[in-house]
Design a protein that fits this description.
111 residues; alpha+beta; 3-stranded antiparallel β-sheet; 2 helices; 23% strand; globular
Length: 111
Protein backbone atom coordinates (compact mmCIF):
# COMPACT_ATOMS: atom_id res chain seq x y z
CA UNK A 1 0.00 0.00 0.00
CA UNK A 2 1.25 3.48 -0.81
CA UNK A 3 1.14 5.77 2.20
CA UNK A 4 1.49 9.51 1.59
CA UNK A 5 3.52 10.01 4.76
CA UNK A 6 6.33 7.81 3.41
CA UNK A 7 8.88 9.67 1.34
CA UNK A 8 10.36 8.05 -1.76
CA UNK A 9 13.66 7.72 0.09
CA UNK A 10 12.11 5.78 2.98
CA UNK A 11 10.49 3.13 0.79
CA UNK A 12 12.51 -0.01 0.25
CA UNK A 13 13.33 -0.53 -3.44
CA UNK A 14 14.77 -3.62 -4.96
CA UNK A 15 18.25 -3.10 -6.31
CA UNK A 16 17.12 -5.10 -9.32
CA UNK A 17 13.94 -3.15 -10.02
CA UNK A 18 13.10 -3.67 -13.68
CA UNK A 19 11.14 -1.20 -15.77
CA UNK A 20 9.03 -2.69 -18.57
CA UNK A 21 7.22 -0.76 -21.29
CA UNK A 22 3.54 -1.67 -21.67
CA UNK A 23 1.12 -0.54 -24.36
CA UNK A 24 -1.29 -3.47 -24.09
CA UNK A 25 -3.41 -4.28 -21.02
CA UNK A 26 -5.94 -6.87 -19.92
CA UNK A 27 -7.81 -6.77 -16.61
CA UNK A 28 -9.89 -9.51 -15.06
CA UNK A 29 -11.25 -10.40 -11.65
CA UNK A 30 -12.90 -13.11 -9.64
CA UNK A 31 -14.65 -12.86 -6.29
CA UNK A 32 -11.36 -12.48 -4.36
CA UNK A 33 -8.82 -10.75 -6.56
CA UNK A 34 -8.05 -8.59 -9.58
CA UNK A 35 -5.64 -9.71 -12.29
CA UNK A 36 -3.75 -7.06 -14.28
CA UNK A 37 -1.84 -8.26 -17.34
CA UNK A 38 0.65 -5.91 -18.98
CA UNK A 39 2.24 -6.47 -22.35
CA UNK A 40 3.61 -4.96 -25.47
CA UNK A 41 1.93 -4.82 -28.84
CA UNK A 42 4.24 -5.31 -31.80
CA UNK A 43 2.75 -3.74 -34.94
CA UNK A 44 5.13 -5.51 -37.31
CA UNK A 45 3.56 -8.91 -36.58
CA UNK A 46 0.19 -7.72 -35.17
CA UNK A 47 0.91 -9.57 -31.93
CA UNK A 48 0.68 -8.64 -28.26
CA UNK A 49 3.03 -10.31 -25.81
CA UNK A 50 2.01 -10.33 -22.13
CA UNK A 51 5.13 -9.95 -19.98
CA UNK A 52 3.84 -9.11 -16.49
CA UNK A 53 0.89 -10.19 -14.36
CA UNK A 54 -0.06 -8.45 -11.10
CA UNK A 55 -2.60 -10.10 -8.81
CA UNK A 56 -4.04 -8.11 -5.92
CA UNK A 57 -7.08 -7.83 -3.69
CA UNK A 58 -10.08 -5.61 -4.41
CA UNK A 59 -9.09 -2.94 -1.84
CA UNK A 60 -5.66 -2.54 -3.46
CA UNK A 61 -7.15 -2.60 -6.96
CA UNK A 62 -9.35 0.33 -5.97
CA UNK A 63 -6.36 2.12 -4.44
CA UNK A 64 -4.45 1.59 -7.70
CA UNK A 65 -7.39 2.97 -9.70
CA UNK A 66 -7.49 6.07 -7.45
CA UNK A 67 -3.72 6.60 -7.75
CA UNK A 68 -3.85 6.20 -11.53
CA UNK A 69 -6.73 8.68 -11.78
CA UNK A 70 -4.81 11.22 -9.69
CA UNK A 71 -1.69 10.75 -11.85
CA UNK A 72 -3.66 11.19 -15.09
CA UNK A 73 -5.32 14.33 -13.68
CA UNK A 74 -1.88 15.79 -12.80
CA UNK A 75 -0.53 14.87 -16.25
CA UNK A 76 -3.44 16.56 -18.00
CA UNK A 77 -3.15 19.68 -15.86
CA UNK A 78 0.52 19.96 -16.85
CA UNK A 79 0.32 18.78 -20.50
CA UNK A 80 -3.24 19.24 -21.68
CA UNK A 81 -5.99 16.69 -22.18
CA UNK A 82 -5.28 13.17 -23.32
CA UNK A 83 -7.32 12.27 -26.38
CA UNK A 84 -10.03 9.77 -25.31
CA UNK A 85 -10.53 6.43 -27.01
CA UNK A 86 -13.69 6.06 -29.10
CA UNK A 87 -16.57 4.01 -27.68
CA UNK A 88 -15.96 1.27 -30.23
CA UNK A 89 -12.19 1.41 -29.94
CA UNK A 90 -10.00 -1.52 -30.82
CA UNK A 91 -7.10 -1.67 -28.32
CA UNK A 92 -4.69 -2.78 -31.02
CA UNK A 93 -5.75 0.10 -33.28
CA UNK A 94 -5.36 2.53 -30.37
CA UNK A 95 -1.77 1.33 -29.90
CA UNK A 96 -1.08 1.77 -33.62
CA UNK A 97 -2.42 5.34 -33.45
CA UNK A 98 -0.38 6.17 -30.35
CA UNK A 99 2.75 4.84 -32.03
CA UNK A 100 2.01 6.95 -35.12
CA UNK A 101 1.40 10.04 -32.94
CA UNK A 102 4.62 9.40 -31.06
CA UNK A 103 6.64 8.95 -34.25
CA UNK A 104 5.14 12.13 -35.74
CA UNK A 105 5.91 14.15 -32.59
CA UNK A 106 9.37 12.63 -32.30
CA UNK A 107 10.23 13.49 -35.92
CA UNK A 108 9.06 17.11 -35.41
CA UNK A 109 11.29 17.42 -32.34
CA UNK A 110 14.41 16.26 -34.21
CA UNK A 111 16.70 18.95 -35.64
Amino acid sequence: MVRPELSNASRQRSKRLEGRYANYFEIGHNSCEFIFDFGQYHPENEDAHIHTRIVTGPVYAKLLADLLKAAVDRFESENGPIRPAADDFDPVELVKQSIADYETSFKKAQP
